[in-house]
Structure formats: structure tokens, C-alpha cells
Amino acid sequence: MDKQRLQDLKRSCIEMRKSCLRMAEAAGESGMHFGGTLSLIEIIAALYLEVMNIDKNTLQSEERDRLILSKGHGVPAVYAVLQLMGIISEADLRTFKQDETFLYGHPSMNQKIGIEFSSGSLGQGLSLGVGTVLGLKHKGNSISKVFVILGDGECDEGSVWEAAMSASQYKLNQLMVIVDRNHLQYDGDTEDIMAMGTMEDKWKSFGWEVRTVDGHDLEQCCEAFSKESTKPVAVIADTVKGKGISFMENQYTWHHAQMTKKQTEDAWKEVLDDRI
Question: Phi/psi of residue 31, each to 5°?
């Protein structure tokens, strides 16, 4: 990746974090899922702005790539990138979680803006991904990729591993899972709640090719998400929950919360002062 393109992507991530703060202001007392949204920013930017075959003109194309956000509570990161791409507006962002909005706190299927599936009930997205790839293959489509984003806490769900077995069995090389490995879930540290051991070994044991990246390093993300394989691929993305707002970073209490006026001011200062 050339330096200018990398700089552009980094600027996009700053703009996406600003958009997340605008959505938080719109949500008001209902709060927002900050932690798992902010840990996804670079992952979502890499996918939508560099890797995936998707833009506002190809949302209905059969050959488009698909994203399934299984950890649906991170959807503000997706709304933020859709705004950058001109698919939704900044005015739309300011309706987040309000009456009569189409930007809900979890994704609601909306082909017009590229939301492929409703999600939020954890553990379901990988099964949707398996079914989607099988459907593409049935139609003779060997071009489109399907990306599924899982939370690491979500991997406690047995349905994830049933789907992982199926993907390996059917050799679904158009399927990629990205695990947001921020080590925190709603109740605390993932290893305290349900120890997974080495996440890479888990996916390898199910027959997947595994890649590990720094989930906030755009170059690493773009390279890992782009590389072809003969197997389904699991990318373990090491991230920081709440990345970019210091008082939220690595704090499970910011999984879902409401900011005070002072916290909102402090968060804006940090995002506006971000440097590339």
C-alpha cells in the first residue's frame, strides 16, 4: 500500500470515530455500544474502503462482496463508513436510535444501504455466512467473498463452532471470519468468563487457515483480508476495546454506556486532536 493511500485510510478512521460520537449524542440517554464499536473502526475501514467489492453503485450487484456483522452491537462503525461512502448522510447518523430511524442499535436488514442481514442475537452470523456462500456457489458465483465479523466473547456460543465445522467440510474458501479479539465482553475478561486458550489453535483444529493481525494496523488488515486461500480463513484481529478514547480503552464497563457531558467533551477533544 502506498503512503498516500495509507494516510487517506487513517484520516477515514478519524472521521469514523467522529461519526460515532455524533451517533452517541443522538442516542442520548439510551446510550451506545462504545467499546466493541471503536475496536472495529480500522477493520471496517479496511474492508469497505480497500478490500471489499462494494460501493454505492454495486449494492444490488450479484457479484458484490457481503459483510455479516455477527457482533451486531458494533454496527455504528458500519454506519460511519457508509456515511463516508456517500450511502447514508450525516443527517441520517444524527437519527441513530431515535424514533422512525433506520439506523438501529443493531443491524436491521436493509438492502438499500447494504445491510445484508439483521443481527444482534450473538452466535448466529457465521451460520448465515455459511449459508450465503453455499447459495453463491449454487448460483455459480465463485467471485463474491463473504466476510463475517465475530466478537471473541461471542465465540463462547456453540453455534459458532457448528458453523465452523460446516465451512471446513464444504471447503468454503469464499468465506472469511474476522474475530475482534479485544479480550473483553459484557461481563468482563473473556478468559475469566470462558477460557478459550489460544484462539488460533481453535480455528486451525476446525480446518481453517488462520492469520493473526494487529486489528488497528490498516496495512496488516488489508493484506490479511485480501489474500486468497483454498480454505475458509479466520483472521484473529488483536484489538483494544474502546480504541481511540482513552478513558474507554480496555474497560469492559464501556461495552454499553452513556457518556456524561464532561466525558462527551473529553472524547471530542481526543478525537479532534488525533494526529496521523
Answer: 70, -175
Q: Is 156 helix (H, G, I), strand (E, B) or coil?
A: helix
Cβ density class 23-53: b for 16+ within 10 Å, e for less: bbebbeeeebbbbbbbbbbbbbbbbbbbbbe
The answer to whether the beta carbons of residues 133 and 175 sit under 8 Å apart is yes
- Is the distance from CB of 184 to CB of 241 less than 8 angstroms? yes
The cell numbers describing 78, all together, are 458500519
The rounded distance, in Å, linking the Cα atoms of 90 and 108 is 19
239: closest CA among 124, 152, 146, 118? 152
Contact present, 70 and 146 (Cβ < 8 Å): no
Nearest Cα to Cα of residue 79 among 128, 44, 39: 44
Q: How far, CA to CA in Å, does 50 sit from each of 81, 93, 218? A: 12, 22, 10
> In the structure grid, which three cell numbers stand for residue 215, read together?
486489528
38: nearest Cα among 189, 244, 184, 215: 244
Q: Can you give the pLDDT of all 276 residues of the chain as single tens digits?
A: 899 999 999 999 999 999 999 999 999 999 999 999 999 999 999 999 999 999 999 999 999 999 999 999 999 999 999 999 999 999 999 999 999 999 999 999 999 999 999 998 999 999 999 999 999 999 999 999 999 999 999 999 999 999 999 999 999 999 999 999 999 998 899 999 999 889 999 999 999 999 999 999 999 999 999 999 999 999 999 999 999 999 999 999 999 999 999 999 999 999 988 766
| Angle at alpha carbon of residue 23, lines to 48 and 109, rounded to 5° | 55
∠ at Cα 166 (162, 169), nearest 5°? 140
* Measured distance CA(127)–CA(68) in Å, rounded: 10
d(CA 118, CA 103): 12
